[in-house]
Amino acid sequence: MWNRDEGHDARFVDRFRDGHALVGRDGELAALRAAVSGHRLVTVTGAAGTGKSRLALAALAPSPGGPARTVVRVRWHDGIPVGRRALTARVARALSGAGLPRDVARALSGAGLPREPAPEEPAAPARPAPAGEVLLLLDDVDPVHTECIGLVQTLLMDQRAVRVLVTARRPLGLGDEQVVRLAPLPVEPAPGRPGASPAAELLVSRARQRGWTEEPDPAAVARVCRLLEGVPLALELAAGRLGEWTMEELAAHLETGQCRLSDPDPLLLRHRTLRTSIGAVHALCEPAQRKVWRRLSAFTGPFTEAAAVFVCLGPDLAPHEVPPALATLSATGVLQTLGEAGAVRPPRYRMARAARDFGAERLAAAGERPATRDRHAVHFRGVAAVAETLWNTGLQRQALQTVQEEHDDLMALVHRAGDGTVHAETALETMLHLWFWWAVHDHAREGSDRLRGLLPRLPADGPLVARGRWLAAWLSAAWDPGTAHHLLSLAWPAAVLAGDDALIGRIAHVHGTLAWQRQDPETAAQYYRQAADITPGGAPWGPSPAVSLAALAVVQAHRAPAAAARTARRALAQPGCADDAWATALAHYARAFADHRSGHTGRARHRAGRALADLEARLDAPQVRRALRLLLATLDLAATTAGAPRPGPRPHVPVPRDGAPAPSPTASLAQR
Fold first, then answer.
1. For the whole prediction, is pTM greater than 0.70?
2. Which of 78, 298, 329, 347 allows an S-S link to 334, with CB 3.0 to 4.6 Å?
3. For 67-80, what is each residue's pLDDT tens digit?
4. 393 by DSSP, 3-state: which?
C-alpha cells in the first residue's frame, strides 16, 4: 500500500514502473532490501544524480511473499517550505493518513510540532489502521537534514511500529542508523564478465527508449561513460542528446563541459539540467564551503589536504576553514576520498568531473580564476622541485611515485600556459624539474611535444629557454635528429654566453647521442667524454656526469671492451652514483656487455642478472630494464648453443621509412 501526500511526485513512480527500471544495481538493491528488513532506520547516501530515490522505490516495491507493509513517502522539492514545523506537520499528516492514530502528532510534538495542525494544513481524512508495519520513506531530505535528525529520533523512540528509510547525500548520524552508500555505476565491465559495463548498458537502454536506433560504437560509448564517470543522471541526460548528436560528437561535447546536459521533460525540476542538479547541492553549502568548492575546481586530479589549503587560501578564507569544508564536501559527494581510512598516508581527494565544471563556472564568475590558478601553478612547481630533489638524493622510486600521483595537475599546469592563465616560465621550470620523468620513465615523446608547444610562448632570449631547447633536443633525438640539431644550435650560444657549464656539458651529451645514432662511435665517444668532464656534479635540471660516463662505456664496449670496463668503473666511482639507480644500471650494463664482447659469458650473465635485480628493486626504468633482459636472453642463448661463434662487429642499424636511424638496444641506452 502506498500513501501519496502533497510532497509525493506520482509521475516519478509511474515512470519508474513504466520502464525506467534500475540498471546495474542488483547488488545495491539486495543490500538495501536486507537493511530495511533488519533495521528500523536505513539511510541511502550518495552524490547528486546517483539514483538514491529510484533505488529506494525499487527496494520498497511489493514482492510476493514479502512482509505486509504500508509505505508512506514524503519528499521535499522546489516550492515546499522547509523548517521543523513544516517538516513535522507533513510527516504527522502523512502517517495519520496512512491509518496511524492521530496521537502520532502528539508523539512528534517534542520535535517541534504543535498539537493541532495549522489552518493552511488541514488534517488528512482518516483511513483504516494499517496491517503490518509502516515504513516511512523520507525522500531527498537534504534541505531539512538537520530538522530530520530530531524528528526521526523521536519517531523511532515513540512509534515501535514505524520503520524509516531516508535518502540523502549524507547520513543522519544517529547511533542505530544503517547506511547504504550508492556510488556511480562502474564504467568498466566486471572482471570475468565480458560485455558492456553497467554505465554503458544504462546509456544505451535510455537512448533506445527515446527512439535512438543507431548501432553504438563500443569505444565511443565507453568514452562517454568515462567522461560522465558513471553518474546515472548524467548518463540519462546524455542519452537524450543522441537524437541530435552522434556518440562521437557527444563525447567531444562532454570534453569541454558537462553542465549543459539537459532534459526538457525531467522527472524532477532540479534534474532539468546537470547544472541545476549540482546547483541544488551548492545552494545548501555554507559560504566557506562554496569558496572551497570553486577554488578546488583548479585541480584536475587527486590532491591532498595540504594542497587544498594552499590553493584555496585567500584574504576571505583562513587555513583552518578548509579541512572542515573538505569533510562536508566529501560527505555530500562533491569530493571522493581516496585511500583507506586510518592508513599511514593522509587521504587524497578527487572532485567529480561535473562538480569541477560547475565550480569552474563559479570561479570565473567570482573573478578568482587567475589568482587561484597562479596559486595552483606555484604549488605544483614546488611539487616538481621536490620530486627532482628526491631523485637527486637517491629516493628515485619515490620521485617517480610523486610525479605519477600528481601527473594530471602537473600536465594541467603546462597546458594552461597555452591559454595565458599561467606564466609560461613557471610551466617551463616545472618541465625542467621533471627531466627524469621524460627521459628515464619512457615519456620522451610526450615531453618533447609539450616543450615544443611551450617554448614559442617564451622570449627567445629568456634564461630558461636555452635549457628548454636542450631538453627538447635530448628527448626528440631518437626520432627527429634534424630538429634536435636545430634546437642544440640555438641553445649552444646562450649556454656559452651565460657560462653555464652544466648546460654546455649536457648539450655535448645530446651531440654524442646523435653521433651514436648515425653510427659514428668515435665522435660519440668524444662528445660523451666532453660531457662527463664539463658537467658539474649535483647540477639541477639534468643527468649527472655519471650518466655520460656510462653512455661512453656503452659505446666503447663494442670495440674496446677493456676501455669500456675502465670507464664503467669510473662512472660507478662518481660522487652520488651509488644513489643513482639509473646511472648505476647503465654502468653495469656496459660492464656486462664488455664482458660479453671479451668472451666472458658466465661473468657477463652474472653481472647483468645482478644489475637487473638491483634495478627492479630500486627503480622503474623501462629502457634499461629491456636492454638488460635482452642481453640476458642473448647470453642464455649463447650458453645453450654448442660451439657458438663469438660475437662479431656491431650490426648495421636499419633505417626506417622516416629516414631516422632505428637504434639498437645498446644505442637506446646511450641516448639516455
1. yes
2. 329
3. 667 888 887 654 45
4. coil
